[in-house]
Structure formats: C-alpha cells, structure tokens
Amino acid sequence: MASTTDRVDINGKIERARERWRKKTQDAFYVTIGMGTCGLAAGAAGTLKAIEAELGARGLRAKVSSVGCVGMCSYEPMVELQMPGRPRMNYGKVTADRVAEILAAYLDGSPVRESVIIGKVDETVTRRNGGTLYAHSFLNTDTLEKIPFHRKQLRIVLSNCGLIDPESIDDYLAMDGYRALEKVIGGMSPEQVIEEVKKSGLRGRGGGGFNAGLKWSLARKTERWPKYVVCNADEGDPGAFMDRSVLEGDPHSLIEGMTIAGYAIGASCGYVYCRAEYPLAIRRLNIALEDARKTGLLGENILGSDFSFDIEIKEGAGAFVCGEETALMNSIMGERGQPWPRPPYPAVAGLWGQPSNVNNVKTYAYTPRIIRMGADWFKGLGTESSPGTAVFALSGMVNRTGLIEVPMGITLRDIIYDVGGGIPNGRKFKAVQTGGPLGGCLPEKYLDVPVDFDSLNAAGAVMGSGGMIVADETTCMVEFSKYFMHFVTEESCGKCPPCRIGSTRMLEVLERITSGEGKPEDLDEIRYLAKGMQQGSLCGLGQLAPAPVLSALRHFEDEFWAHIHEARCPSASCEKLVRAPCVSACPAGVDVPAYLALVAQGRYAEGLAIHREANPFPSICGRVCPAFCERRCRRGQIDESIAIRQVKRFMADESFAVPWTPPRLASKKGVRIAVVGSGPCGLTAALRLAQNGYDVTVFERMSRPGGMMTYGIPAYRLPREILFAEIDHIRRAGVEIRCGLELGSDFTIKSLQADGYKAIILALGAHRSRSLGIPGEDKKGVYHGVQMLRDIAEGRIPELSGKRVVVVGAGDTAMDAARSALRLGAKEVSIVYRRSREQVPAQDEEFTATEQEGVRIHLLSNPVLVMGDASVTGVRLQRQELGDFDSSGRRRPVPVPGSEYDMPCDLLVPAIGQITWVEDESVGMSRKGSFQVGEAFNIDIPGVFAAGDAVTGPATVVQSVAHGNEVAITVDSWLKTGKLGGVYYRPGRHDIPQLFNIDDYAAASRPGIRMLTPEERIKRQDFSEVEEVLDEKTVQEECKRCLRCDMEWLERIGEPLP
Amino acid sequence: MEVTLTINDRKVVAPEGSTILEAARAAGIRIPTLCHHPDLSNVGACRLCVVTVEKARSLQTACTTPVFEGMVVHTESEDARATRRFVLEMLLSDHPNDCMKCEVNGNCELQDLAYEYDVPFPETGGKRHEYDSDPDANPFVAVDRNKCVLCGRCIRACAEIQVRNVWSFASRGFQSKLVAGADQPMLSARCESCGLCIAYCPVGALYDRLSLKKARANKVRKVRTTCPYCGVGCNMDLNVSDGRIVRVTSTPEAPVNGMALCVKGRFGYDFVHHADRLKKPQVRRYLIEGGEKGRGEAWDEMVEVGWDAALDISARRLREIRDAHGPDSIGVLTSAKCLNEENYLMNKFARQVIGTNNIDHCARL
Lengths: 1058, 365
Description:
The structure holds 2 protein chains of 2 kinds.
Chain A lengths: L9 H17 L2 E6 L2 H5 L2 H15 L3 E6 L11 E4 L5 E4 L7 H10 L8 E5 L16 E2 L8 H4 L17 H6 L4 H9 L2 H11 L11 H10 L6 E6 L8 H8 L1 H15 L3 E7 L3 H16 L15 E7 L8 H8 L23 E5 H13 L1 H5 L9 E8 L5 E6 L4 H8 L9 E6 L5 E4 L9 H7 L7 E6 L4 H15 L5 H4 L1 H13 L7 H15 L3 H5 L2 H9 L1 H10 L14 H5 L6 H9 L3 H11 L3 H7 L3 H5 L2 H4 L5 H11 L17 E5 L3 H12 L3 E6 L7 H4 L8 H13 L3 E4 L9 H6 L2 E6 L5 E2 L15 H10 L9 E5 L3 H12 L4 E5 L11 H9 L3 E3 L2 E7 L6 E12 L5 E5 L5 E4 L2 E4 L3 E2 L1 E4 L4 E4 L15 E3 L2 H4 L4 H21 L36 H6 L12 H8 L5 H8 L6
Parallel strand pairs in A: 1-2, 7-8, 7-10, 8-9, 11-15, 16-17, 16-19, 17-18, 19-32, 21-22, 21-28, 22-23
Antiparallel strand pairs in A: 1-3, 3-4, 4-5, 5-6, 11-12, 13-14, 13-15, 20-29, 24-25, 25-26, 25-27, 30-31
Chain B lengths: L1 E6 L2 E6 L4 H7 L23 E4 L6 E2 L10 E3 L3 H16 L15 H8 L24 E3 L9 H9 L5 E4 L6 E4 L15 H5 L5 E3 L12 E6 L8 E7 L2 E6 L13 H5 L14 E3 H5 L7 H4 L1 E3 L2 H19 L6 E3 L5 H15 L4 E3 L4
Parallel strand pairs in B: 1-5, 15-16
Antiparallel strand pairs in B: 1-2, 3-4, 3-5, 6-9, 7-8, 10-11, 11-12, 13-14
C-alpha cells in the first residue's frame, strides 16, 4: 500500500527514541517506580514524593520514571535504581518511610534489610527467546536462580510492563514499538497479515481460544463497510487483572495491535470496551491514543499511507456479562448489556449490524510482536496446539501472588510451587481454580497437567482469560463453589430463565448444604440444575456457570457429603457449620469450648464427661495428641492458641483417682459382637457398642491391650499407669478383652461367626514395618523401629549401651525409636531421611525434642546398601536433591550420582512406615495393605467391617477414636435394620455460659510448659514422662483466654446464649 | 431463493433468510415459544423454542437461527424437550400459584406450556419474588410483576409498534424486573395507556384494570366490530358477557390496525352501557309543537322522536335560518370520527346545499 504522500520516517523515530532511552537510563541517575493500580494501592504515590524529596535533600539530579507493574504484587511498591557505573538494583516493598534508607543503601552502601532487595538487574540477560525483556533481567545479588518468581516466566505480552513509562510513546518506540505497524503498512497485504497471524497459531486470549487469524479472515471476507475492530477490555473475573496491567503498563502495544487488525480486516474504526472501574487504564490509554495520533501512527493516513484508522474508548459500567462479545457490542451501542444469540456472528453482523472483529486485549497486544518476530518464532514457543505464553493472575493461597506470564505447556505444579512459591503456613494444597467463575477446579492429582487450552479442557478446567486461584486445606470446596455461583447470580444479565433463575436455585441448594440443611437428593438437584443451565442458557455465562460447582463435586464429592450427612465442614470454613474451629478440626469432634469453659469454673468432672462422649481417652490424648484443635484455634491468629491439650491433661489427671464407668445408653440386647484389635479404634468401637447394649468381646494378639498406644508410644510420652487405667474404663462398660489370640491362627472369622458373633469389626491397625528394599537388609543388626518399640513395651529391653544406631525415616515411629535408643544408652543415634526438613512427617514438637536430645539428623540422605558381613557394620548412604514434585505434592528426592558415603553403625533401624498384614484362610482373606471399605466400613465379607489404621494407614490416636465412633454407629444400624450406611456420627454439643469478661484476658498469654531438660531425660536413662502438668490456677486462667467461638456461632444461627 | 432442509425427518422448503421457526410453522410443525411473537423482533430469550440442529455445538433457538441448505433439525429431541421442561420449571419456581384467581386463567401461554410439558407447580422451592401486586396507578393498564416471565414482548411491542419505549428491564440476574421508564409510574414514562403491552403479554403480568373480575376469556363472546371513535376504522373484538361489554381485545386479523388500538378504542367503551347514553333522537318540545323557545321549562324540555321527525325538524330549521339570515349564518363542523366519504358529503352539503364555505372539523384543534 505504497503512497505518494510524505511517509513518516518511523525507523528514524525509533532510532532517536532508542538514543534518548539509552541516555535516560544510562547517562544519569535513573529511578523507576511501579505506578500501576497495584503499586498505587500499596502507596507508590507516597514513595514517588519521598524519592523526589530525598533526591532534593541530597541535591541529586535524577530521571524519575513512572512505569507499570512487573507482576510482583506481594512486593509493591517497587523501585529500581541505576547510577552510571553502579549495578542496577531492584527493591520491593519500598513504602515512603523506607525511601531514605534504601537510597542510602544504594548510594552510600549503608546496610539495608535483605528482604527488600529483589535483585540486581543485568541488561545482558535481557532477551531470551526474543520475547522477554524484563523477567529474566532480574538478577539476584547472588544468582539468577534465587528469584524463583521470575525463573520460569517468559514475558512477551508483558515484556514492556514495568520497564517503560506507559505515558511515553518514546519509551515504546525505543522498544521497537510500531515497527510491526510500519512493516505491515509498508509492505504487507492484508491477506499476508492475516496469513502470518494464522500461521503463528495465536489463539484468542479471552478464554475461547479461537484461532485469531481465522477470526480476522472471517471479518475480512464479509463485504460490507464500515467494519469495526473491537477490543474486549471488560475484565471482570474476581481477582483477575491481566488486561488492566497491559493497559496500564503498555497501552501502545494494544493500539498497535488493533491498528494492525484494522488494516487486516479492512476497518477504519476501533473500539476499546473498558470498564469504568479502570480509571488509570483509561487515562493512560487516552494519553497513548493522543500521542499516537500526534505521531501519525493513528488517525488519517497512518504513516503517510492511505490507510486510516482511529480508536475510541467506550467505558462500561462493570457488568461481567459485557465480557461476552454480543453483550459487549450491545453495550457499545448504548443498549442494555445483554447477549444476542449467534448467528449472526460479529464477523457478519456485529456492531451496528456491521462486520466486526472482537478480541481480547492480550490477543491484540501479541500481534505486533508476532509480525515483528515472525510467525515461526511465536509458533516455536509454548505447545504445538497452544503456541506462545499464558498470562495469569495468580492469587489465593500461594506465597507469591501476582501477575505472571509463562510459556504454554508449563505444569500447574510449576506455576503454583515454583513461580508462586507454594502454599503459605505449611498448609496443604487442595485445589486450583482456573477460568474464574466460569472455570473449574483441579485437585492435587492434576497438578502435572500442562497448562494449555486443550489439556486444561480435557482435565475439566478451562484456560479462561487468566484468573488462577489457589485453595488450600482450609478452603471448603462447597463454599468455594458457592462463592462463584453467588457471583453468577449477581452478574447474570437476567435475559434467559436457565441462567436467571437456575443460578439462584443452584445457589439456594449450595446455601442449604453449607448451612448443614442439605438433603441427600441435593447433589442430584445440583447436577440437574447444572445440565439445564448448560443446555438451556443463551450465552457462555449461563452455559459455563455450573462448571465450578460441577468440578468441585467431581473432585471433592466427599466434602459435599460431609456437609449433608454429618452437618460437618471438613475444612472448618462454613460459618454455620463451624461452631468453633477447634471442634471442626478434631477428628472425633470433641466439644472443646464446652470443657474449656467448665474447667475454667473448676467443674472438671462435667468437662471430662463431655470429652468422653466423643473420645474416651482424655488422659492418653492429653499426652500424645497432635492437637489438631490447637492448630486451628482462632486465638492463635491473635497471639497464641489455647493450650488445649495441656488443659485436657490436667482435667483428666484431676479425676484420675475416680474410675469412670461409662453410662449404658440402651438396654441389653443379647447380641454378640467381636472386635479384633484393641487399639484406640477397636476399644472405642467396643465401648460405644457396649454402651448401646451389645455384648462385645475384643480379641488382641499381643499380651496386653492398647495396640500402638501400648506397643508404639514409649512410656516417656505416655506413662503405662495412665494408659492401662483408661483401658480399664472400657472394661467397666462390660467389654471383655481377650489377649494373646491372633486372627488367622488362634481364631478365624468363620469361627467367630460360628460362635454367634453377629458382627465382626477388624480394627487390626498397621503393624508390619515396611522394608527398605536394599541389599543386606536381612543382616543381623537390622532392627525395625516397630519391633524395637514393641520389645521395650514387652520388657525385652535391647542392649544398646555404647552402640551406634542409625534410624531410617522421619515419621513419629522413627523419632520414638531414636529417642528410646538414646535412653537405652546408645552412644550415638542418627536419623537419615531422604527428603528435606520441610517434608518431615513427624510432629514438629517430636522432631524438635529429638534434635534437642542429641539425635543427629541427616537430611537428603537415603540408604542404598547395608554393609557388613553377617552383622551390620554400617550403611551406605546416597545424597539426594529435590527434583520435581511427586504425587504427594512434595518434591521428589532425586539421587545425586557419585555422592555415596558410608556411615558406620552397629544397629540399623528402619522406620519408614507400616502396613496392615493379615491372613485368614477361613474366608480366603489375605490383605497386605489397607482395607477398602464401603460407606458403612463394610468389607466384601457380609457382617465384617474394618476401621482404624487398617483402613487409613498409620494415623493418630484421635483419628482412630473417630473411626471407632463411626464404625460403632454403622454396625449398630446394620444390626437393627439390615441396611448398610445412611447413618452418620454427629457429636453432641453443650452450651456452657461464660461467667467472666473476656476483655480481662485480652493481654493474657499462653503459659510455658515445663519439660525435663534434654540432659535430665537422657541422664536418667529411663522413660520418665518428659512433659510436666500445669497447675490448677494456670489451667483455669488459660481456659479463660478461649475466645468462645461457640457463643458467636449461637448468635450467628440465631439461638439464645446459655 | 429457497433452501431445502429437513425438520423431524421431513423435507421442508423455506425462503432463504427465514428462521427455523418460520420454516417449521409454514410446514405445520409446532415449536413452542414464549418470547417470540410474529409481529415483533426475535431475541431468543425464553429458550423454549430450542431445537437440535445436527452438527451444531449446542441447542439452537428456532426463532433466531436462519435456515440453510441441507440443515437437519429435530424439534422434539430429548435434549430440546428436557430443556423446555427445565425452563418451565424455572419459570414456575418464581411464579405465584394463583391460577385459581388469575385474570388470564385459561388464556395463558405459560399455563398452556406447563400443561403441554406436564410440569407441575413446584410446591417447595426457593425464594419467589414478592412484589406489590398492583403498584402502578395507571387507570387502564395494571402490572403485577410477580407474574412476569420477563419475555420482553411488552417492551418490544411498545418500542417497535407503538414507538413509545415505555417499558424496559432494570437490574440484573434474579433481580431483573420490568420497569416503566426509569422505574417510574407508567404515566410519567411517556405511557399513553394504549394497552398494547397487555395485548402482547403471554401471562397475567399486564392486565386490563377496567375488566378486573368481570369475566375471564373463556366466559365471553367475542363480537368483531369497528371502533366508532375515529375514521381509521380499527377492528376490535368486544368481549361480551351477559349482554354487556366487559373488555375490548385486539385481534391479529384486523386489517388496518393489527393488534394495536388506542386508549379510547381499547378502554373507552363505558359509554355503551352508560345510563346517560342517548339511544334515540331528541328534540325540544317547542320545535314539535310549534312556537317560540323560552316560554318556560316545560316547553324547552327534550322529547324523544323518531329519526324522520328529527331530521325533518333539523332540515326545516336550517332552511329557516339560511333564508332568514343568509347561508353564512350557518357553519358546519364535522368530526374525525367520520370517514373520508362522510366528510366529503358534509363538504358538499355545506357548500352546495347550504351555500357556505363555513366548514371545519374537530381534528384541527
């Protein structure tokens, strides 16, 4: 399209702009400050003022430039300093009050808080794959690898954001801006442009993923004029701000892209539809439009050619549905923002009935780069079917939230753990939601799915326009999906009944479920409503709205059922179901606030009775429970959580002299039940059934009852008299415990049935130690941790004095074995573990105590060979490094070749896990691992049930108690009705009044617990209890620190306070 | 140009550019609709006309989808029927259960569709709107938003036919509602109370206030007539019950006006049964019995006479006046209620019979 009019010399302009850029950034003191909406929200305006004031005070002349956002939300406001002859440094969290400190650090070399320095910027690393300019230009003061947020990013569409001043066309030109437009107008036909975009494989970044070039060609084909280029900048997903960043940080790239599109389809007018809630974006875009017009890059006869094109901004009122292209065009035309059914498609009849092309901001912003670098360059990035990069707003439960651009094909795991830095506060990942309110969530097992349009679709999520929300274990998936459905009910345009009414009905069902009033048929109702909305709705909003709920239902159906059946929110998140987080967190649902309130009043026996309703082992759990309750205690968010376990222990010890006779709750039935295994699960189940009038016999293969409580937990943590006293309580309920009888040899399921036992509960535990699977394991001196603890409990004390012991593994058994070995006089005890400290499965307290007592911990080491002839003389270890993530969400230990080293020892103690191991020929049962059970804990033999560790694998006492409660209820129901399942354990509740003013305890703090010093513990060479009990006064005061979440809950559900 | 398509295994020929719905109806194939009306533009809102089009990604609305050569349509596919049922369930779940006392019982498209698709009234369920059932003081047109299905036919009728743009939707999602103007009373929103919106309302959301509790549609006899108010000649149906007009409805068969009527034609029928209505000519007694007026009340009172007598007296007096005072002492005022022909005759009468140019008509106000 050569023209005879004066051509604008764009190349000359670019050269001059580059020169000015070089001067600006290198010849003087150059300061940039991130002034996107995110930066401004974090106080960047104040920072700017402070910088100018400080420069003035120092009498320094500097070029201060406002730039867009580099995506590190958690580090705003961000400042970069560059003095000729000094390194270019990037600083985060530079609020106004820290400006002087940071300038002093940079200019005078005075010390600065390390966390503030993001990194050193090195311009030599500014271009990788031709696209990225900035991300990889970050260099930590040490190494590039230390900035994980940037390492896996590839910034193309965001490459200028945070680098250039968005209000300066000069800066954009210096980055080769408008070179693509020049190339297009100067020497490409519209068809060639379309062909190039088609060839690049660029897919629409609004979420649809339709081939952009193909879309353009359709608009070009329709032979009616005028035509329109429309940019969809109506970004409305909660927590998504990708388009805003482009508009605020690099507006010219959009203008250039739209102008190229206008040239390609034959349009002379463009619209940017942007929500009015983006005032900064609109202001900057307006400045950019005006600058482009003045420079001859927009308007009449662009670059002196006969191609004319201009762009208008249409401010929308912030309706989510206006992101739908037909609703968007209705809104531009001044109509109500409601979609119309397609056909007609925009390419045929769009804006004012004319051919129109609608694309997302990012789609247009990619095109200048594609034209400049060539289709093949773009095609070479990302994956075959989804070339290029993906921009995400990463938010929710990740350490580093922010705006990221990653190559397509990267895994979700890489995004969440590497770029995002994993889940905060050591919590577990639960799900990631992509595609916002119209997307879907994916659980752990999908984390290795590559991120591209088709893979995400296949996995049941969608790419969407770029929202990515991470949920951790504290997120309730029912509530999560309810949130999105609520969003849809607010944002549905109301035009068609499936969406307008269907979304409201769906929300009502979800509200019902999250308030504990769900019905078993509700899940079918959800699926029915979802299908109706998907099939019946007019536009994508209604058709896709059920997706978050359906995906949550697909991956987390259990959570829905827990709400419906048990009125329980497993994540302790649903307001109406969570009486108190501690109660929700307790597997057995013990009414914590009730007994804390009673203990505060000195009513210990009443508190104990309430505890025993849900858990018959307060003394035991008062010593060994990991106290899930304390981790979720709300007081812990203010200062420190209540010392619940200590209170429990005191309460139980107070009544130790008074033996408990469990109350009988139903008359004798004359029905016999056998429980195999006398661990916490078996005993609890036996107790509950006996209380309900059954004649229960417990069979135990060891000589004493208690299972792992007796044979796994050493006496220094759980004194024997306490343990056996609580087991005796179970006997007082009428339960007969017969020891020394083993299933499969001394008796069988058949023989039990023949003896008239109507139901049999297998609470066998998991006792068989896993083998290491390495050569030499059968040598003398290989002594499994489980066996060692069992021998000690049985009184067969191994001779360890003067010996060197190496324990393999880092679970609770490993810690117990190591600490026991120390107490038995071992000269040196080491623990080797193949993963790192963060991944140690043992409780934190246990691990710390083990370390304190003098056990040497060797992390990232794995045994590969047991050395010695007949007896063990040592173990060969191989160093490990952390590789990719495995299916448990932890980084996989990868052996480092050639890193083997030997560790001499006399005893090698494997403690890497236990499994269930049982054989009973009478019914052909041979189980080497966990039992698979039905809803009623039933296994495939009629009348036989399994529960506890035999089902879950090794777990805690309280988890086994919970299983015991549950299996008892279902067995009782089965015996009464002949039906399996359908009954659920719902712990009772007690509302205890609060008799003091909580405000008086605002400043109170958690008492310290006196423990024996590590020296005392080892010196004694015995198994004395390590932890001492608190005194009465301290315990009562501690209870008064409880915030009484249960009272707040009563108010929430509208019930009177006690 | 015509295209051939297949609907429910039948070959159907339809003009190019027609919709699936038009093609199907022309071929006698029923597709249910609610927001569609042949007089109005199509918006595809109610989703009841969804049909399966082979190779299409999703169900298509028959009212908006144009036919193409070789198109294969199934109007009664399982998905389509299930979706229609779902839509009706949703609509009924936010609809009052008061067919018993509803004005349009028996004449309600929602009721008919629920009957056809066997959708019961959902007894339990979530929230329903509880709007004021008669919030607008318009003396003729009443609105009950509780019954509104948001089909938008009233909006389009008002905008496209009457061109008054009174109605529109406000708010979003479940809160969407029909409003006049900026949620104002109708009369403040350019409404001229023509009642066209009532004529297009498929349910009982817009109804005729004057006819309230008079007689439902199936209890009336419809008498087609021409509106007496003006010379346009609108056809309309008098709904007669028990010998009295209880309502006026418009009819799509009306050649001049279609469904449109003005406020007078639709609502101005109270004169018919009015006690003051004159049914026979009357003249003053002195004109019959001879003599002068002003001789006393008895002499001046009106008395009923036959048409011949009345016309004779009128002719006589006109002649007397013309003869006594000249033709220009008489002026003729005709009416917009008259037909052109009648006005032409009055013109002739004035100029040729009376001999004056004093003729005018009331529409020049």
